[in-house]
Design brief:
Strand content: 15-25%
Oligomer: single chain
Distance between the termini: 48 Å
Structural class: alpha/beta
Number of helices: 20
Helix content: 25-40%
CATH topology of the largest domain: Rossmann fold
Number of strands: 26
CATH superfamily of the largest domain: von Willebrand factor, type A domain
Radius of gyration: 27 Å
Shape: globular
Bound molecules: zinc ion
CATH architecture of the largest domain: 3-Layer(aba) Sandwich
Amino acid sequence: MEEEATRKLQKPKNEVIDTDSLAMSALPEDANAAPGFMRMTFNQIGSEASVASGTAVPLGLIIRPLAPFGMAEEKVGLVNGQTTSGVMRCSKCRAYVNPFMRFTDNGHKVVCNFCGNVDPVPTEYFCGLDADGRRYDVAERPELRCGSVEFIAPAEFTNRHPQGPIYLFVLDVSFYAVSSNLLPMWVEAIREVLAGLPQDPRIQIGFVTYDKTVHFWHTKSGSAMLRMTVAHQLDGVAVPTPSGIMTNLVEQRETVNTILQTIAETHATDPVGEACVGAAMEAASSVLQATGGKLMLFQASIPTVGPGKGKPRDEVRLYGTDKEKTLYQPQDPFWRRLGMACVQRLVACDIFCYAQKPLELPSVSIVSKLTGGQIYFNNQAKPEDKQTLIMNLRRNMSRNQGWEAVMRVRCSENLSISDYYGNFSMQNDTDMDIVSLDCDKAMAVQFKYEGKLPKYVSFQVALLYTNMNGERRIRVHTQCLTTTSQLSNVFRGADVDAIVNFSLRQSLQACLTSTVQSARDALIKRCVNTLHVYRKSCATSSSLAQLILPESLKLLPLYTLGLLKTNLLRKASEVRSDERAFLMAAFNSMPIKMVMKYVFPTLLPLHNMEPECGLIGEGNEICLPTQISASSEQLDGTGLYLLDTGMSLYIWVGRHCPPDMLLDVFGCMFDDISSQLPVLNTELNQKINAVTTQVQNMGGYWRPCEVMKQRHPGESKVYAHLIEDKSAPGYNMSYVEFLCHVHSQIQAKMR
Ligand SMILES: [Zn+2]
């Protein structure tokens, strides 16, 4: 599914060996961490600030430390025990041992590839060297061969006994959640997902509900007795002991089901119109304060009473003013305080929200952002969205994740980290504290130059975390790249996907500190500047009439246009602040591959697939048809297409599809096709279902698939994502027009 983690980086070439010689030629293929784990904006790095700044793109690193299982995971070698004093590290800069550290003096000394410091090799780690300077034990030591390894953490890295999975569900039972039938849908979905969880005896489940008061649901161990207590005082809710609230799922599955059923029944009638969201979250985080765990908030109403209460924002009046940025910030300092309290208590917060009316998500979302959580945003409250909730909740609770994580990035001397991007908190200048980190999350850092770089530079990500089995681990990813003094080489090594991911994160910052409009202007300016400096310094043709793009960045204008057409960067007034708060949180932690789906929606033709498509192929995955450009010109009235926008999935059906194909796929004629893709016993239908399921399972959000008929109501939803068209909302230019616009801006700068 996630082939990106297996794509090989170019191994640095063994060019002129200088005093920093690393004997690159002797290193195995996977000495560098796979790009699925860490990816730089450039694979060859400018040797000086003046060279690097010549690209007008920052030197940045996108990190997805827990990239999915499968091929990538196999490349993480486990290292069990090292030296008596712990894992071997440089005594000066504390970098972890890696394939680029060099052993000298017959194996008695080790030279750090980050700071050049020379340390004696501890006696128990000593090994002799062969004629090429390699240790004889390389084959037995993954940390000397693999760019990605995991160490069993020494005891000093464990502050307390690692906890198992703990989930406290916090459910809105106020008027809107009940009257729109959301509550029974949530309850059924939670029950179904809990029933399918593995029989892990460590899983603890608990429930808190809220309307104008907070309700705690107690059980008595070993009995079916159930009790609800109500906290009427909202400031500083008196919290009962967690032992009565948290229930062992495996031992008391029936009790958990009874609680869920009772919650739905108790609140089915006479719902209360007020919602104390802040008090409920505060109380829930107090319940978990001794153990940590996950707070799963289900929200359908704006916080109206208690701490953090807010009112709908006057969005229209603020757009375009210097107060626009306040629209995306919490209304009350309570929310940031609550977020930091959750960080202290090791409580992560995921939010499932249903926003038919304003929810004040810019406030509530900060708790999720500070703790590394995830937000699931539903624009409308549709009870039939149960399947989407089940799929998302299941993935949320079963994907690979870590707890109590601390991450640090190290780089060679003369580089330093100038900025951090992602959903986490920092209590010092170097460590990212991430209460809960999963395989779908990525962070980024930006580097700045402090001086001239040597021939090779190294980057290392060290993540200390508790894994799914409750084991404390240190996962270390290392990459070593070559530097160059030639600007043209830097351009050649540009990674456009990483640059787009980084650029999106810069745009998020701009929205939070300025206006959406200025974020859009800055984005276009960055694209023009980069292509202009290339034109000026590297292009051989002198004709100004031609738009010249470096090979590695030829898609930069297309992706820039795609970014401009995402809901995040559409005109401020076209997107509600709740949705934008969600997108800001989501994009801030999204890995490269998922971002690309939003920036460049995937259009797959289904009517003329190659024979192997829809069948299991290499890597045990379903073969997908080849992607075509996201343009309405591609939609043929005699064809069928799948469009994946990252947030939604559509099958577009042309009016003139051959009747026998329609019968094969839908079992009926054009006029009778419904919005759901049926499951039929025909080859084409099964292949299309297989392709659709494969696409649905890719990425951090599961999306239902909606069938759209050509020239039928709602079809515009498809066109809105064909970013190469002029008609796609958000930025009134087609791809061709945008290229012309970029070209004319470059010409203006050249004159
Ligand atoms: Zn060092």
